[in-house]
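Case study 2.
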Amino acid sequence: MKIEVKHSTAEFDSYRANRVKSLFNAETGSNWEHTAELPVEDLDWKLGLIVGPSGSGKTSIGRLFFGDDKIVNLYEGWADDKPIVDEIAPDGDFNAVTGALASVGLGDVPAWLRPFKALSNGQQFRAGLARLLVEQPDEVVIDEFTSVVDRQIAKIGALAFSKSWKRGKGKAVLLSPHYDIIEWLQPNWAYDTRTMSFKKKIRQRPTIKLDIWKTNGSYWRFFKEHYYLDLPHPPAAEYFVGTVDGELVAHVAVMPLFTANAYRASRLVVMPEWQGAGVGTKFLNEVMQYHLDGYGRKGKKFHTFFHTSHPQLANYLRKSPLWVQTNAQLYGANKKKSMESIKRTGKGMMNGTGYGGHFRAIQAFKYLGKNYENK
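Prediction:
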């Protein structure tokens, strides 16, 4: 594919225009041309990237790429008085919408209930990607990809979008001035407008080194705003956080459930800028394995139960060979009954706490472990 871009404007004859020509020996500024050789006809591809500095012709090439202007604006068409969960495919499937939001890294449930204008730049960017995933156009061009978000969100957002888009059938061309997303995006091909070079082989995606720490409940304050429930600290809990290069990434609490020869995990939160990278499930699995290997309270080698209302997390756990689903219910159990049970188990030492009494579709899972996976 050969794309020729030719732009021309009027030749101005003003005093300042002529003075600029004289000072800088510039004969004219009215013409600009760029020829891009993009040998994609014989490629089996779904995701392409056109990268280069501002003013190098990315947008012009993007407009001509599919023979018609198919540039989409991720930030247009959002109502100011509706939450984004209502704005994406209003007549479509609810699970498809929440799945798209989670798959691009916008798994922060409270954000789903806000209008687009109330979201951060990073959240708006991901909401736009989620809408695009649900709409699934056959051909689309996205201009200024990751340009308005910080670089950490840009990299993880590129990773999350790439994984999700490649599951579909459409072709997307992304236009970006940022070279730092290339390895994270892993496009099928990339064209650099600065060097006018075309690549089909992209360097391997950087590895994410996750460190896990056993802490105390004081770290919860950093994660609380991203959790969809407002609950007191769970009784007898031990807390774990995950970090990448010293940055807080994930949190979970684990409580003994020795009456059932088990543990119970809760308060799983992944920071928004890291959602979609797979670190949350990796973190959860490692902490669950830690307890199954006998490093939890009293050295018990017990399995861990985990409950969630998040549809996409539940979907992952159902498909994972490390987990098995044990229960599903539309609403929580009787909270008064739960409080009385905890009080009896704690011999009167734990009062005023209990689980249930809400109207959420809860799904329960049990961690089987890595050894079980290999059986």
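The radius of gyration is 26 Å.
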